[in-house]
Amino acid sequence: MTDRPLRVLIATDTFAPDVNGAAKFTTRLAARLTRRGHEVHVVASSLGRGRHGTHVEEHEGERFTVHRLRSLLYPGHEWLRFAEPWRMFSNAASLLDALRPDVVHFQSHIVLGRAFSIEAKKRGIRVIGTNHLMFENLMDHSNIPRALQGKTVDFAWRDAAKVLGRCDVVTTPTRRSADYLEKMTGLTGVHAISCGLPGDEYLPNPERQHGRIVFVGRVTSEKRLETLVRAVAKLPADLDWHLDIVGGGDQIDELAALARDLHVADRVTLTGYVSDEELRERLRSAEVFAMPSTAELQSIATMEAMATGLPVVAADAMALPHLVRDGANGWLFRPDDAADLAEKLERILRLSDEEYGKYRQHSLEMVAPHDIETTITAFERLYRGEDIRDPDTRVELSD
């Protein structure tokens, strides 16, 4: 199998500057492939009215071509845009004919993945599909009446099965999410390939930061942040704690009001959107990371915290048990149980320095196999049509 540079077309419904796990992964993927000498073309939604077209953009320190398509803002959403559906097939056909890529890798089947998978298969182009979605997780933002949401989710998974079924290979970030995807779609042979993390970009703080609890991510309903605010309000009075909720979203005002109602507003900071540099500093200033979400297919934010050497308290749901081992690098708590979350946070906050150091070391050991270069190598091999064994992210921890 030749190792010549590839021409890779990545089709994605969300891309930088969007702030979410799928956009972050796709941006890193494009940049790292470019760094390895491949010719990368990203097809994504425009950033707004009149901001479509083809440009060379710089992301993650690398320059590559991004084709921004005319797009629509999703009703009621502050940033989510979709390429105009009535143009998606003609756009896909013209770009594929002009670029003649070796492989198409789509990151969402909803709009662009749908069009590019159909048009690529017509042309005999290899198609890789990666799923970052749990439809159950999207209903709060869908504007769909609650009574219809169950049927909508069922329809969405059937539709996903059709689109993903056209792919030569389907991937998702963890084995648990791969099993879930196979269950919901009837697909088989889904590969579990971590989104990966550039671990050298995260630097643990040599000094323990007492009492600082941090969450990083979208401040939206699916992250279950109300549970976290209620949990910290239950912490014993003798603990000198402070909670940083780092990220933007539509729940900021609601959570601020809840903190006031629980009389902890002076100990809860909602930062809104921050730069990558400030995000890393917030992690370095923390003692423990909390992830109350129950619908994480991997959780890049949790891996970033682990790469910073933080113990983690996370919901025992979906893929988070892949990242947290009870009593080793943190604790899992019963989903949506604020009292159990408070009790697990207290365990970390009361650790001796020696015990805390072990948790910290175990977080670093457990995140190490998620190095992004392993992820990029796996995708390179899939792009070339090679059979692969999924990267093993299991770890034997030190004593």
Automatic annotation (TrEMBL):
One of its GO terms (molecular function) is glycosyltransferase activity. The keyword Ligase does not apply. Residues 19-197 form the Glycosyltransferase subfamily 4-like N-terminal domain. This is D-inositol 3-phosphate glycosyltransferase. InterPro entries: Glyco_trans_1, Glyco_trans_4-like_N, Glycosyltransferase_grp1. Pfam families: Glyco_transf_4, Glycos_transf_1. The keyword Methyltransferase does not apply. GO terms for biological process: carbohydrate derivative biosynthetic process. It comes from Agrococcus pavilionensis RW1. Keywords: Glycosyltransferase, Transferase. Residues 212-354 form the Glycosyl transferase family domain.
